[in-house]
Amino acid sequence: TQLLEQSPQFLSIQEGENLTVYCNSSSVFSSLQWYRQEPGEGPVLLVTVVTGGEVKKLKRLTFQFGDARKDSSLHITAAQPGDTGLYLCAGIDASNYKLTFGKGTLLTVNP
Amino acid sequence: KAGVTQTPRYLIKTRGQQVTLSCSPISGHRSVSWYQQTPGQGLQFLFEYFSETQRNKGNFPGRFSGRQFSNSRSEMNVSTLELGDSALYLCASSPGDSYNQPQHFGDGTRLSIL
After folding, report:
1. What angle do CA A19, A23, A26 make, to 5 degrees?
2. Which of B103, B104, B109 to mutate to test the interface with A (most CBs of A within 10 A)?
3. What is residue B1's predicted lDDT score, i.e. its pLDDT?
4. Are B105 and B31 within 8 A, CB to CB?
5. Is the pLDDT of residue B99 over 90?
6. Do residue B106 and residue A97 have CB atoms under 8 angstroms apart?
7. How far does B105 lie from chain A, in Å, by closest CA?
8. What single string gives the DSSP state of each residue in A38-92?
9. pLDDT tens for residues B13-54?
């Protein structure tokens, strides 16, 4: 069974601070996706990373896929209250199209 | 383009009853996946249907079952409900013909068991 560990589980910061959340596994994934979920809504895809070592930027968010495709990180620069939400990573196994989700990092950005 | 629609949004049942949840995917999407989300366990995969066939299955007991219709709409059934089945049930759709496609989630059905 493939498992994804996310850390930290909870993170509360002030507006303007930088932060990094992590997604780690002992298994290799074909690719990895990051989602953000807001209260009362379903998760929404932020990015898909496919190649080991790949870095993708989405405005103030920077995503990195580890060289061995076992881990990933999400860095947010100058966090804003609108960044508040549950950040989920999901590893994809291309052999069976199966997604495995981590338990998420609950981020709160205080004004 | 309409998103993924889940009905009902909220449901209250008692132990021992059964429940059916419905999911209408984005038009043209042939894959529908179901997940259970709880604070303690996070998002856990139940099963995935693609073109009316179950393509993947998670590690849930046989009380949890699903099906997909020819129009790609899907239903999930839980029989003999237990207190621990209280959760947010999410469905997600995708075209399903490539493994890197994004999952488009509905807003879920909140199931409470009394």
Report:
1. 150
2. B103
3. 60
4. no
5. no
6. no
7. 5
8. -TTS--EEEEEE-STT-EEEETTEEEEE-TTSSEEEEEESS--GGG-EEEEEEEE
9. 999 999 999 999 999 999 999 999 998 899 999 999 999 999
